[in-house]
Amino acid sequence: MSDALLDIRNLSVALPKGADRPFAVQGVTLDVKPREILCIVGESGSGKSVLTATLMGAAPKGLSVASGEALMAGQDLLTLSERQWQKIRGKEIGMIFQEPMASLNPPSRSRARSKRSLSSIPICRRRIAPARRGVWSRQCICPNPTAS
Questions:
Q1: Which string of b and e fits 13-39 if b means at least 16 CB within 10 Å?
Q2: Pick from 104, 103, 126: nearest CA to 115
């Protein structure tokens, strides 16, 4: 058994039909051991974001895992349901972007974004989350928190 926290073997992520190449990520094998830091570096379009998003259960629409496994604590991350991801994302596995502000999606509505964030916290799922959305929006000086 490997002592790695994360053990990725032969991971390939397929691009949609008609793309300029068949895979965004092809044959990636790596592991991350305790106390190690992994930095993923590559040219624009080399698959860094697709790899990390796939490992976080957030692969872009239209892409699919073609092969491989990504084991964390003996569990294959590539087979988790969204419900299972909600239990571990941000608690057991996370990602720090080089430029966090660049990862914001301006067309994504703030209400949906805050609902997703707050609903990932068990205590906030039912009664607290709806009340906090308005407070969060007002604190961020959104012009019309109920419309966003």
A1: bbbeeeeeeebbbbebeeeeeeeeeee
A2: 126
**Can you read off the two tokens belonging to residue 42?**
């590559």
Average pLDDT, the chain: 79
* 61-75: average pLDDT: 94
Residue 8 has pLDDT above 90, yes or no: yes
Residue 47 predicted with pLDDT over 70: yes
Burial of 113 (0-12, 13-18, 19+ CB in 10 A): middle
DSSP, collapsed to helix, strand or coil, labels residue 48 as helix
Please say whether the beta carbons of 98 and 52 come within 8 A.
Answer: no
Please check whether residue 98 is in contact with residue 85, taking contact to mean a CB–CB distance below 8 angstroms: no
Contact 148, 142 (CB under 8 A): yes
Which residue has tokens 């190690």?
A: 36
Contact 145, 133 (CB under 8 A): yes
User: Model's pTM, two decimal places?
Assistant: 0.66
